[in-house]
Specification:
The protein has helices spanning 38-52, 176-181, and strands at residues 17-19, 59-60, 63-64, 82-84, 90-96, 103-111, 127-135, 144-153, 156-165, 170-173, 191-200, 205-214, 222-229, 237-243, 246-249, 252-255, 263-273, 276-279, 288-291, 293-294, 300-305, 315-316, 334-338. With 342 residues, it is mainly beta. It has a single domain (17-26, 34-338), classed as Peptidase G1 (Jelly Rolls), CATH 2.60.120.700. The strands form 4 sheets. Strands 6, 11, 12, 13, 17, 18, 20, 21, 22 and 23 form a 10-stranded antiparallel sheet that branches. Strands 4-19-5-14-7-8-9-10 form an 8-stranded mixed sheet, covered by helices on one side. The longest helix is centred in the N-terminal third of the chain and has 15 residues, at 38-52. It is globular, with a radius of gyration of 19 Å. 49% of the residues are buried.
Length: 342
């Protein structure tokens, strides 16, 4: 999955952006009469995997930058303090190492949210939501992450469990019936726990263990292991994120709409860095970033961290009180509400 986008500029982006989706809240679409064919399910899932595997480079200063250049020109926040860091495709928190230590464990819990698909004329456009925890991706080009996902495809909703381990793309897990026919899938309300851990390996590599547990539907649970060169996967950050896909095209950036998820939240967000265990806010080896998601023109918030319910109107970035910097709960939890998907 793609890394987070860098801090927004105060002016419109220099690179052209493809803008998909309506600026008003999409309404629900009845899917009771829709039974997608196996070929349609295959197309939907192929799109999900392709878009989530895009490895988009960071968007900063109005242009696409090289991997790892996301924070050039950004003033470093003090260790252990929370700073707002708006993003085009991420919302949530990132703990960023500012020293020579590395992150060796990240975990979090969440309830899988439901999504509402757009209506005409946008019903055939993909809309997405992914909840995940992971290591790397905030300061660098690599990602080691796993989570749940939702997709609206031709008016039908698909739910996923998945992981991504750099340099490979997104891998869908779950039952054969879910993957082939969109039945026996994870569902909204499922209680999810996920973690990524790192241990030293040999020959300049580290070992990664990614584990997701669906406590409601254990058949959706999975675990996997992988290796990555220590010099490549540098383990410099931990993240607790909701995301919409984004990727680079020859004429600019394409950022896909966030599906209407109403509200979602994380609990028990924990991290181990330099051998020290803490929750999101207890991290003191570097800054803690609160990331609200913003629209492509840097005009509106798409969702705000620690927003208990949707406000009922668009939140202007020009309004300094619209989305104040938030701090996770002492137990490492936070919530966010959908404001718009464009």
């Amino acid at each position: 999955m793609q890394r987070r986008f860098a801090r927004y500029a105060a002016v419109l982006l220099a690179a052209p952006l493809v803008l998909l989706g309506a600026q008003s809240a999409p309404q629900s679409v009845s899917v009771a009469s829709k039974a997608p064919s196996a070929s349609t399910v295959a197309k939907a899932r192929a799109n999900f995997i392709k878009d989530m595997s895009a490895h988009a480079t960071a968007l900063g200063g109005g242009a696409w930058t090289s991997p790892g250049a996301e924070h050039v020109g950004k003033a470093a926040a003090a260790d252990g303090t929370v700073s707002e860091f708006p993003s085009y495709n991420w919302s949530g928190y990132a703990d960023s190492e500012s020293r020579t230590k590395t992150v060796t464990y990240v975990s979090g819990n969440w309830t899988m949210p439901s999504v509402t698909c757009p209506t005409a004329p946008y019903q055939n456009s993909d809309a997405f939501l992914a909840n995940w925890v992971g290591i790397d991706g905030f300061n660098d080009a690599t990602v080691e992450q796993l989570g749940t996902g939702a997709q609206c495809y031709e008016g039908v909703t698909y739910y996923y469990v998945w992981y991504e381990m750099y340099p490979a793309g997104t891998v869908e897990e779950g039952t054969t019936a879910c993957i082939n026919d969109n039945v026996n899938c994870p569902e909204p309300g499922d209680q999810i726990s996920a973690s990524v851990s790192v241990t030293p390996g040999s020959s300049g590599e580290d070992n990664y263990a990614l584990k997701l547990t669906d406590h409601t539907r254990p058949r959706e649970s999975f675990s996997t292991t992988a290796t990555c060169a220590t010099a490549t996967c540098v383990d410099s950050s931990g993240e607790w994120i909701i995301e919409r896909p984004a990727f680079e095209l020859p004429f600019g950036a394409q950022i896909l709409p966030a599906a209407d998820f109403n509200q979602t939240f994380f609990t028990a967000g924990d991290i181990v860095s330099g051998g020290k265990y803490s929750n999101i806010q207890g991290f003191d080896d570097g800054p803690v970033y609160d990331m609200p998601m913003i629209d492509d023109s840097t005009s509106y918030y798409l969702d705000c961290v620690d927003q208990p319910s949707r406000p009922g109107s668009l939140l202007s970035i020009a309004d300094t009180s619209a989305c104040p910097t938030a701090t996770p709960t002492p137990s490492g939890g936070f919530e966010t509400s959908w404001d718009a998907g464009f």
